[in-house]
Structures are given as C-alpha cells and as structure tokens.
Amino acid sequence: MKTLQARRDQILQQMAQCQSMEYGCLRAEHRPAAGGGSSGPYYQHQVWEAGKNLSQRIPSPDVPALEAAIANRQRFERLAREFIALTVQMTRRTQDTESDAKKNARRWRRPSLRKPSSS
Known about the structure:
Elements: H1 2-16, E1 25-32, E2 38-49, E3 52-58, H2 63-101
Antiparallel strand pairs: 1-2, 2-3
Helix pairs in contact: 1-2
C-alpha cells in the first residue's frame, strides 16, 4: 500500500511540472511548387471544439512551443489515467481489508467486465 501511495505522490509531482498544455494536433504539410519539388513545411493546428474541427495555420517560430504544449497535455492525460488506476487499486485493497476484518461478512465481488453471452 505504501508503494502505491509513493507512486501516486510521484505522479502528482510530474503532473505539476506540466506548465503549458494545448488540445489538438499539429500537422506539417508540403505543397507542390511551380517547376517541381515542394514548398513548405506549412504547419496547421487542428482541434475539436464545440462539435467542430477548427484549424489554423501556425508560423514556424511558434511550432516548438505548440509541440511541447501538446506533448504536455498527452503526458498529463497518461499520468491521470495511471493515477486513477492506482487510486482504484488502493480503494479496492482498503475495502478488501475492511471486509476481511468483519466476521461473517459477505465478500464483495467486482462486477464482470465481460458481456453476458447470448443464447
């Protein structure tokens, strides 16, 4: 249980280090140039907001900061999922310990994640 709590504390510290975040994704596109070859890259930031896919062009100098912000959000979401999983695991261990302490207590069974088979 202490190792789970220590990992949770670590995760919270890592989450606090994510100072910038942005939704969406960044795409680089190249366009065919007159006389052959291609021009670019041109950067486009796409994000889904209010049921619409919004996109805007991003100047090349702004790309590294936007890439870092998108990576921070993805990292934060991954850490949040891990934090939730650890918290659920700790909760279940606590519940199992409490139910073991009670005499004649019925053991709580976790619901099955499988779909019932249809006959």
